[in-house]
Amino acid sequence: MLREDDHAPAPPSDDSERSRLDPFVVATGDAPPRDQRDLMERPFFSLAKTPRTKPILYKAADIEVQVFGMPEHGMATIWDADVLIWAASQIVAAENDGLTTSRFVRFTPYHLLRAIGRPTGNHQYRLLKAALARLQSTVIATTIRNGPHWRRRQFSWINEWEEMTTRAGRVEGMEFVLPEWFYNSVIDRSLVLTIDPAYFRLTGGIERWLYRVARKHAGHQRHGWIFEVAHLHQKSGSLARPSDFALNLRRIATRQQLPGYRLQIEREDGHELLRIRPDNSSTGTVDNPVNAIGRSGARGIGTSGARLSADQAHEPQLTLWPEKRNPTANLSNRESNSFSLTRAQAKRGAGSAGNGEP
To answer: How much is the pTM?
Structure first.
């Protein structure tokens, strides 16, 4: 917990949200990692390791997601989203213990970095601040839980943030304010899933996205889930060409490094499919298994992105990850779950369900 002597935070200005909220002080970084379901199954983040400003324009049935990155910082990335996973984990753990939480989160960077598997040197602190800047500057508009006037309810992943320093200028803590859209979804337990801690060791954008897709859709169902590769590309928001995206998926399936899941490329009637099944290597919490198989087909998604190769779209970039580490590699719950069929009944879906980004 932050000490209250020589580095208490400066009082926020009257126009700051922090002046109207009680802080939720995170004393440690220990909490089982949890992710928000909507973020796992929709393209809310850039998967690239180069700054992205091309917007994501996603539409599937009555669901729309629009994400805009500012030229100064670029769009928030799937690595930056670790900050939100950490925040969700802390909030859920505190709520489970009967503690009062808040959108106004106060913490030590050391605890956050340790919890998401990052080094704690000065360079990582600078990268954390860059991640917070991208999370704050990225603008999101979505129909999810926003009703007919969703375009008027734009938000950023972080409303505001600030460093807390000693009188000598040493950074001892940070604080930020989460948007109501995210916070309200986290305190609704039905909208949060536990994830494998090994997720944080995945360094490739597509691989991280694919784990979240697997966790959300395949879960612990014995027969898993089948996706059309073309559908996965459409719903991922990736800047990679479809052929490069498919090649990336094949490589990921060959490496078999997705924690808790086995991947298999299949072909049927001229379509390339990816089958995702749970295995026994997961270190995360096991939910109730369902003996069914789900299939997802392609729907329309608008992505405005340059036609980059997979290598270009996923080269090392401004992330919290040290570059020496080995790289690896959204529709509503109602939509995605509507494609859960018995294995014998499975037909290629024309409609929906993938989760997010590779």
So the answer is: 0.77
Query: Is the residue at 356 inside a domain?
Result: no
The string of pLDDT tens digits covering residues 329-352 is 333 333 333 333 333 333 333 333
- Among residues 21, 133, 4, 23, the alpha carbon closest in space to that of 80 is found at 133
Q: Is residue 105 part of a domain?
A: yes
pLDDT per residue as tens digits for the range 22-72: 999 998 778 999 999 999 999 999 999 899 999 999 999 889 999 999 999
Query: Is residue 1 one of the residues assigned to a domain?
Result: no
Look at strands 271-278 and 225-228 and give their pairing.
antiparallel
State the residue range of the domain holding 101: 17-345
Quick one: residue 102, left, alpha or beta (phi over 0 = left, psi -120 to 50 = alpha)?
beta
What are 67's strand-pairing partners?
A: 56, 140
Closest CA to 104 of 8, 163, 177: 177
**Phi and psi of 142, rounded to 5°?**
-150, 150
**Antiparallel, parallel or unpaired: β 56-60 and 171-177:** unpaired
The domain tally of the chain equals 1
Find the mean pLDDT for residues 278-301. 48
Q: How far apart are CA 265 and CA 284, in angstroms?
A: 25
